[in-house]
Amino acid sequence: MAVKIGETTVSDNVDIVNTQQDVPELPLTGAAGQAMLIAAAIAAVAIAAGLVLVNRRRQDLDA
Predict the structure, then answer these.
(1) Where are the alpha helices (DSSP H) in the chain?
(2) Which 3 state secondary structure label does DSSP give 38?
(3) pLDDT for position 39
(4) How do residues 34-60 score in pLDDT, each as one tens digit?
């Protein structure tokens, strides 16, 4: 179907409202995200150190 000049209508033009958000949700990349990562890293190191100590104590008891 070909569209000819003057045969188009503007009845299908729609106004779209752009609603702005006041505060966007941000990913955890700032101070809160860093604090959680540091806390998780410290916990992982503490768990690893505890496992090493348990293994050494078991080896000393077996020897």
Answers:
(1) 31-62
(2) helix
(3) 93
(4) 888 899 999 999 999 999 999 999 998
How does residue 4 score in pLDDT terms, banded at 50, 70 and 90? confident
Short-list 37, 41, 42, CA closest to 27 = 37
- Which H/E stretch holds residue 9? none
Q: How far, CA to CA in Å, does 15 sit from each of 7, 9, 11?
A: 22, 15, 11
Residue 28, both tokens: 């955890």
* Residue 59 DSSP symbol: H
Place of tokens 């992982």: 44
3-state secondary structure of 62: helix
Asked if 43 and 50 touch (Cβ cutoff 8 Å), the reply is: no
Q: Are 22 and 30 in contact (CB under 8 A)?
A: no
